[in-house]
């Protein structure tokens, strides 16, 4: 079998071999890192040997991506990085990344380790949902991590949480509030209601948080649909903001930038987010490179899913 004959399905086999033969991890360590059984790791190694993928070195056209993944993991201290191949001639920064996220989520769901999934919003998540197989997982709960907006129903926090739950046959819990409260409403008093107390307790019990990131432009769902009139993009840029994660604004070093919206933002706090065991950031596109780097440097994610064009730019920005 030649390199050209290898289907994309063999990506798992090649990744296992990379960790086993190049990184010299044990089969148990690989199984834990990839969220699969040790038996499946062993089968992948045996399959690679039988197909001739493993000789003196791992012989696969997929290796350039695995090199990027390895470099990203080491550079940012990640548990895992997945780099999807993008089409540079017809570039879609949601498509490849969304497909990779769908694959990752399917893999992790098979492991049975997730019982409560926190989700944000955006097109990348919607692309992932569209690619996922329908399942019946009644013990699984999908929890929205941020409030919503009145526009872009399929992309906002309400649509993403309910849409993913529908695809997985799971339960869902919505943070039934706007992402930004009106200025005349007291946030503490508003969140003291039982429905929100219970929801925020669920946010402290997430097994995984699925995150996206946006820059400060009209490409951003938050900027386009949810930013109140009291704060404009010019104000954010002047304050040093380069983007947001879960509607929290960050500077280029990953520091939270205080704004007029802090006292009215409804969603998971960054300190609470950092306590979630698995934090998956799915983001791609040249315009997102600064916010991806900022989010990783801030420790907001320990798993990165992106495409190869973005991965190179993130690494080259050092």
Automatic annotation (TrEMBL):
Transmembrane segments: none annotated. SUPFAM superfamilies: NagB/RpiA/CoA transferase-like (SSF100950). Keywords: DNA-binding, Transcription, Transcription regulation. Residues 65-315 form the Sugar-binding domain. It comes from the Bacteria. One of its GO terms (molecular function) is carbohydrate binding. The keyword Ion transport does not apply. The keyword RNA-binding does not apply. Pfam families: Sugar-bind (PF04198). Belongs to the SorC transcriptional regulatory family. This is Transcriptional regulator. It comes from Paracoccus aestuariivivens.
């Amino acid at each position: 079998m030649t390199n050209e004959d290898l289907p994309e399905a063999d990506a798992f086999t090649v990744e296992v071999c990379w960790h086993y033969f190049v990184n010299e991890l044990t089969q148990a360590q690989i199984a834990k890192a990839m969220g699969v059984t040790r038996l499946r790791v062993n089968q992948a190694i045996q399959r690679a040997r039988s197909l001739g993928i493993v000789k003196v070195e791992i012989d696969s056209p997929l290796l350039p991506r695995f090199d990027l993944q390895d470099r990203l993991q080491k550079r940012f201290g990640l548990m895992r990085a997945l780099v999807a191949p993008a089409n540079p001639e017809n570039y879609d920064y949601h498509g490849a990344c969304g497909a990779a996220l769908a694959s990752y989520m399917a893999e992790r769901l098979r492991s049975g380790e997730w019982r409560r999934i926190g989700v944000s919003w955006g097109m990348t998540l919607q692309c992932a949902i569209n690619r996922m197989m329908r399942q019946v997982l009644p013990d699984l709960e999908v929890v929205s991590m941020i409030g919503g907006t009145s526009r872009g129903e399929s992309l906002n926090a309400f649509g993403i949480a309910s849409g993913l739950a529908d695809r997985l046959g799971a339960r869902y819990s919505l943070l039934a509030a706007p992402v930004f409260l009106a200025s005349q409403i007291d946030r503490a008093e508003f969140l003291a209601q039982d429905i929100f107390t219970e929801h925020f307790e669920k946010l402290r019990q997430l097994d995984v948080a699925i995150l996206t990131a946006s820059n400060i432009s009209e490409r951003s769902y938050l900027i386009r649909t949810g930013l109140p009139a009291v704060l404009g993009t010019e104000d954010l840029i002047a304050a040093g903001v380069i983007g947001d994660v879960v509607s929290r604004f960050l500077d280029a070093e990953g520091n939270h930038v205080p704004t007029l919206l802090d006292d009215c933002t409804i969603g998971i706090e960054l300190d609470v987010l950092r306590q979630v065991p698995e934090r998956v950031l799915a983001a791609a596109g040249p315009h997102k490179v600064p916010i991806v780097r900022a989010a990783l440097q801030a420790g907001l994610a320990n798993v990165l899913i992106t495409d190869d064009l973005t991965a190179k730019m993130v690494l080259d920005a050092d």
